[in-house]
Design brief:
By secondary structure, the protein is mainly α. It has one domain. It is built from two helices and no strands. The protein is flat. It starts with a helix and ends with a helix.
Length: about 40
């Protein structure tokens, strides 16, 4: 259980550090949400 939490924490850290700003992070999340929504409607 601890290793899953640690892996998730590391993944989130890299995802946030990949974006220069929180605005950029918001755009990335919005793109992912749009792709999930499009996949769900198919």
């Amino acid at each position: 259980m601890k290793s899953i939490f640690f892996a998730l924490l590391i993944s989130c850290t890299f995802a946030v550090s990949g974006c220069n700003t929180m605005k950029g992070f918001g755009k990335d999340v919005q793109k992912v949400g749009g792709k999930i929504e499009n996949a769900a409607t198919k």
